[in-house]
Amino acid sequence: MKLILFGLNHKSAPIEIREKFSFSPEELLDALEKASKINGILEVMILSTCNRTEIYSLLEPSAQGMKEVVELLYQCNKQVDLKTDPFYYIYQNGDAINHLFKVTSGLDSLVLGEPQIQGQVKEAFQVAMNVKAAKTIFSRLFQAAMQTGKRVRTETDITKGAVSVAYAATELAEKIFRSLSDKSALLIGAGETGELTALHLKEKGINKLYITNRTFSKAEELANKLDGIAIEMENFPPLLATVDVVISSTGATEPVVTPENSAAYLEKRKSPIFFIDIAIPRDIDPAIGKFEQVFLNNIDNLNKIVDKNLAKRKAEIPKAEKIIAEEVLNFENWYQSLELKPLIVELKDKINEIRENELKKFHNKIPSELSSDINYLTQRITNKIFHHIVSSLNGDNEADKLAKAAFLKEIFLSEPNTSDKKEH
Amino acid sequence: MESILNFLQIFLPMAYFLTTFYYARFFFHEDPAAEKKLSWLLNGTLILHIIYIASWGLFYNHYPLASIFEVMTVIALFIALIYKYIETRLKIKTTGYFILIMAFILQLSSSVFIKKVDQIPEILNSPLFDFHSTFATLGYSALVISSIYSLMYILLYHDLKSNRFSIIFERLPSLESLAGMIYKSAVLGSVFLTLAIFLGHVFMKQTFNVWFKFDFKILSVYLVWLLYLLEIIGKKKFNWAPRIMAYLSIAGVVIIILSVVVVSYFIPSFHKFQ
């Protein structure tokens, strides 16, 4: 196998370099087409996301290796100097497969275990397969990568727990409420994290979403986007008597929710209300937390959850790596079996040839009524011998397997040494 | 039969220990291998316990409520049975450790100290009494469960209030779910207790020809019954905060435990059947 990966990612290259090497959808198609015309490249797949660009190439055994890949990059106007540029990485064969499986499993992502990358790998392979840049081997490699990603996600906790402030807020809400589908939320301010939190709550099925902002038009705009209800800033306090979740992310310098404007509503509450304060300086006066039904969390609390979950995900890496190593071995075994296939076919032909030659020699000496029985018998004997030979090639140890294959080739397929024949 | 009883007497606490251990592993370590074993461990323990109680009743020829240690094993069984019902209904296994550890302690104490009661009071052979006592123990068991859920609720409430994200926060179900569990088990307990009180009075009329007779145990049961009634009415009519319900549930169980201990050891009562 001659599989080469040339790549750069968020760890190896700054954004200015990643920008230069990223492929737009049109550039990607063009690059795949160009790759198929370069001598030595058999199959190719390009993964281009905001955090990484990776080119996986399967090369002919006679190919020089990086020369063909550099040629492709050159044709795509993405010059690289392999001797001086420090921002890329190159992996070959097993290491390249291992890297792809790590990427698909989210182990190489900016946010450890994030699931989005699996979809991006899937799309990259599909684009390559659609234009016939990826064929038999890469099709199998794609299946193996998907299978590995799935195993890592189901057999480890690498994707468990919120690792963003917005998700942590949703996770906290789920510790207070059994279900969010009969709950309502109020978003104060149109900040990005607030919007994201509201979006996650929506995804979790929150029933009603009110949005308020100093600039009412912004509240309306966001309400349209999130299918919510825009309300004027001065009208939000009465809602504190009924809503279940409040997310606040304004740029105000003074608290927006204070005991003065909300105590009357919070005191009356019989059910919990969850305040998520993601603003700095804080929007919600900490004194609000003293009410029986109020659960108040600020950005520091949410970050604590994120850090804890990230540490837990990191602890799952060894388990994930073990799964990846197993899958890499499975793929390599499959690939080796492909390499052995021509040898097996040749061996079968050779053994059959020996059988037929011997039968021909004895053709005249065998009574015609026994001819078919003897033909059947010899076929059975050669089949049994062949079965034993093929079984001996099915081992776990790659080196052993290759040594046996070479030995068999030597015995059956090389030209016989004439000195061996002299005694006959 | 005696050898089966002797074997189960030793084996049952071990079975409860093993089941509780796996529930603990699941709670503290989220161990998926442990999770797979939970159902069959609990089912197996329950089956063994039912066989044990039935064998005890058949062998000694009385309903096993003649001593405090017989009551303990019956309550342990009912706690485990009611928990199984709640787990199956709500599909939440993370609370099992807290409930089953109680069943384990009760069964262990019972197995260590239980012995044959030589003189069985006549009233223990009445079917009406059997129903009365079954409902009473079922009621007590449900209320014990309600109080354990209450304790979990209070712990989680304080974790969330003080932004402490401990294992309680990570592994327990939501506050609302726990509040639902407190309420459901309190309702279940109250219904059983109401039936037990009613049948107790009918039995009293049959046996002593009076509807009411002063007894410390009866007084404590009425107190517990009123507490839970208050809890249910408070929730339904006045939408009381779950924390109030939780404290009432815990108070109810403290009264139950005190009444059982006091009646058994310190105060003469016609509820002392030995």
Question: Would you mind describing this structure in some detail?
Answer:
The complex is a heterodimer of chains A (424) and B (274). Chain A has helices at residues 15-21, 25-37, 66-75, 93-105, 116-130, 136-155, 165-176, 192-203, 216-226, 259-267, 299-315, 317-361, 368-393, 398-413, 418-421, and strands at 3-9, 41-48, 52-59, 89-92, 184-188, 208-213, 229-232, 245-248, 273-277, 294-298. Chain A is α/β, with parallel strands linked by helices. In chain A, helix 4 (93-105) crosses helix 6 (136-155), helix 5 (116-130) packs antiparallel against helix 6 (136-155) and helix 7 (165-176) packs across helix 8. Mean pLDDT of chain A is 88; it is low at 420-424. Chain B has helices at residues 2-29, 32-60, 68-90, 96-113, 127-161, 167-171, 175-208, 216-238, 242-265. The longest helix of chain B is centred in the middle third of the chain and has 35 residues, at 127-161. Chain B is globular and about 55 Å long.
State the end-to-end distance of chain A.
Answer: 42 Å
Shape, per Cα inertia axes of chain B: globular
Annotation, overall tally of beta strands of chain A: 10
Number of helices of chain B: 9
Major sheet details of chain A: 6 strands, parallel
Tell me the β content of chain B: under 5%
User: Which structural class do the helices and strands of chain B define?
Assistant: mainly alpha
Q: Gap between N and C termini of chain B, in Å?
A: 24 Å
Average pLDDT level of chain B: 88
Task: Please give a quick description of this structure.
Chain A is α/β, with parallel strands linked by helices and 424 residues long. Chain A is 54% helix and 13% strand. In chain A, helix 7 (165-176) crosses helix 11 (299-315), helix 12 (317-361) packs antiparallel against helix 13 (368-393) and helix 12 (317-361) runs parallel beside helix 14 (398-413).
